[in-house]
Specification:
Layout: H1 2-6, H2 10-25, E1 49-60, E2 73-90, E3 93-112, E4 115-127, E5 131-139, E6 157-165, E7 185-189, E8 192-196, E9 206-217, E10 229-231, E11 234-246, E12 249-260, E13 263-265, E14 268-269, E15 274-286, E16 291-303, E17 310-321
Antiparallel strand pairs: 1-2, 1-17, 2-3, 3-4, 3-5, 5-6, 6-7, 6-8, 7-9, 8-9, 9-11, 10-13, 11-12, 12-15, 13-14, 15-16, 16-17
C-alpha cells in the first residue's frame, strides 16, 4: 500500500513519484464528447508502458464517438474500455502511441419531433470503434529518461496529437443508435500545459491544461432512416486545473466546450450546429508504485437546442511499467 511504500528510503520514494507521475500524466478518455481528462498529455519517462481499464457510464443525447447529437435521443451506455500506451523517443522528440478498444452495452430511445407518441427503442452490444492516437512534444516537452525526469522543471509546454477512430464497432443501419459510428474520424489537437512546481514529481504540483482540437468526419453511407449523413468539423476546447495534495492524492476541475458539427442528411442541411459546456471533477488515488485509480464525473451545464446534453461517470484503473 502507499503508506507502507512511502516509509522506505528516499530512493524508493523517488521511484514511487516517478511511477505516480506516469500514472496521472498519461491516461486518456476515449470519447471526444467526454474529453481526454486531466494531464492526459504530460509526458511520463520514455520507454514506459501504461495499461488502463475504464469502467464508464454515459447518459445523454449523443452517439458516443460519432459526435452526432439527436435532440430526441435518450442514451444509456455501459462501457469497459482497454487501453495501452507506449512512450518513446523518435528523432530526439518525445512521442507516445496509444491503442483503445471499448466494449459494452447501449440502450437508446428516440422520440420523433413530429410524432411525440412514437418512440423507437433499440439495443446495441459488443465492440465499439477502435481508436489509434499519436501524441508528440513540440515545445518544452523533451524525451525524458527515468534518470533525468526528476530534474526537469515543468513550465509552458506545447504538444500535438492525432486520433484516428476506425469504423470497427458494432453497427446496424436498422437501429437508431449503435456502439459503432460506421465512419472514420480524425481529431487533431494541440495540448498546452502550464506547470507550477519544481518537477513532475513535486508532491504539490499544480497544472493548468488546455486542449483545443478539431475533429473531421467521414460520411456514414448507411445511416438509420436515410441514405447518407455528412458532418462538418466539430471544434472543442478542453481545460483542467489540477493539484497534487500529497504524493498519493490529487484532484482536478474539468471543463469542455463544444461548437460546430452541423450535419447534412441526403445533401440537405439539418441546421443543427452544436454548442455546449460540460463541467466536472476528477479524483486520483495512488495505491502502490505501479497501481492507481481515477474517478471522474461530468455534466452538461449549458447548451443550445442542438448541443450535447447529459452526464457521465468514469472509473479508471491504471497499471504502469517503467
Amino acid at each position: 500500500m502507499i503508506w507502507t511504500f512511502l516509509t522506505k528510503s528516499k530512493v524508493s520514494i523517488r521511484a514511487f513519484l516517478t511511477i505516480f507521475a506516469a500514472l496521472i500524466l498519461h491516461s486518456h478518455a476515449t470519447y471526444a464528447d467526454i474529453g481526454d481528462g486531466p494531464r492526459a498529455y504530460f509526458p511520463p519517462p520514455i520507454n514506459t508502458n501504461v495499461f488502463s481499464v475504464y469502467g464508464m457510464r454515459v447518459e445523454g443525447n449523443s452517439t458516443l464517438s460519432a459526435g452526432v447529437v439527436y435532440p430526441g435521443l435518450e442514451l444509456d451506455v455501459d462501457l469497459v474500455i482497454a487501453q495501452y500506451t507506449r512512450t518513446m523517443s523518435i528523432s530526439d522528440r518525445y512521442v507516445s502511441f496509444t491503442v483503445v478498444q471499448p466494449t459494452g452495452d447501449l440502450t437508446s430511445t428516440v422520440t420523433l419531433p413530429n410524432a411525440p407518441n412514437f418512440q423507437n427503442r433499440t439495443k446495441s452490444n459488443g465492440l465499439g470503434d477502435t481508436q489509434i492516437l499519436v501524441s508528440a512534444g513540440l515545445y518544452n516537452l523533451p524525451p525524458l529518461t527515468k534518470e533525468n525526469y526528476a530534474s526537469f522543471k515543468p513550465d509552458f509546454a506545447v504538444g500535438g496529437l492525432a486520433r484516428l477512430t476506425l469504423p470497427t464497432g458494432e453497427y446496424d443501419e436498422n437501429k437508431s443508435a449503435n456502439l459503432g459510428a460506421n465512419r472514420y474520424s480524425m481529431q487533431l489537437g494541440t495540448p498546452i500545459t502550464f506547470g507550477f512546481g519544481e518537477s513532475f514529481l513535486d508532491p504539490r504540483l499544480t497544472t493548468f491544461d488546455l486542449l483545443p482540437s478539431v475533429t473531421f468526419f467521414g460520411d456514414n453511407d448507411d445511416p438509420f432512416g436515410a441514405g447518407k449523413v455528412s458532418q462538418s468539423p466539430l471544434y472543442k476546447l478542453e481545460a483542467h486545473l489540477t493539484h497534487n495534495f500529497n504524493p498519493g492524492i490529487w484532484a482536478s476541475i474539468d471543463g469542455i466546450y463544444t461548437y460546430g458539427g452541423e450535419t447534412e442528411t441526403d445533401s440537405q442541411g439539418d441546421d443543427n450546429k452544436q454548442r455546449s459546456l460540460n463541467m466536472g471533477a476528477t479524483l486520483g488515488i495512488q495505491f502502490s508504485k505501479s497501481l492507481g485509480l481515477k474517478l471522474s464525473y461530468g455534466k452538461t451545464i449549458d447548451r443550445n437546442d442542438d448541443g450535447l446534453d447529459g452526464e457521465f461517470s468514469r472509473l479508471t484503473l491504471i497499471y504502469t511499467q517503467l
